[in-house]
Amino acid sequence: MGRISGRGERARLERDSFIDEAMHFRVYEHLSKIERDPELRALLVRLSLLEKKHMNLWKAILDEDAVSVPSLFPALVSLQVFVFSIIRRVMGIGFVTKLLGLTEEGTLARFADAIKGITLPESERRHISIIMRDENYTEEVLKKKIRVHEGELNYMRSIVLGLNDGLVEVLAAVVGFAIISRSDLIVIIGGLIIGVSGTLSMAGGAYLSSKSHSLIERNRDSSKSMPATRPRDDAFYTGAYYFIGALIPVLPFMAGISGYYGILASIITVSIVLTIASAVIAIISGTSIKRRIFEMLVISLGASLATIALSSVLKFHFGITI
Question: Is 90 exposed, middle or buried (0-12, 13-18, 19+ CB in 10 A)?
């Protein structure tokens, strides 16, 4: 980033930083109220107070520079708190901790860019340095908590990977059946058969993989190894969510949508679910969310297009139908 001295760029930094800190404060505060673990609750309270200090610091800077925040600011913060609350209840504290850690990394990166690229008063530069020190502390604390909940994240990884595989594999099969079959019932039955066989295969593979991983971990220094999942649980989560993923491409046809409309509905539905699942995996693994979503959509839609091409050749060139 080049050196920018414009007031607009500085005002945007101050406004975005205030909103960011306010969001973190409210999220930590809310999570502390619903957390049952006393130690984790105390940590969340401590972090919320730290973020509140940062919020008030930015508020004072905004007032001094006569910079206003958007009128929708309270609604946006409330929405973010609501979203984090839902994520906490559905996906567990381990995933939320990982997500919060990523937002803290984003905050630190923005401050680092600001110090390099924007001309700021010396007092404001000192304030940012103090906040960055506090944010580094917060990030380290969250990383420690992530390690504590690594086993929970492993289960989440198994769930989402099973869901991904079910979506991608059965979508291609359903699309192929839909083109060459004369009846939606064949599409539904074919999709379900592949879903059931894939579920058993995925569950068995997950069980053997998890068992092998557990044996390897036993031979390592337990203080350095990550919490492992139990093979039976790993197999259950992977298999169950593979089957759920396998059902999704079939649902439009079960709902009575047939032919090319059914294919389109199936592809759109799978793409939406796959986007969400890919984002979750990216957050857990610490990779780029956009890249992960792009890769999975390309793989999924590419497999579907290849199946459409092959099935069309079989139907229209060779006259094969079922």
Answer: exposed
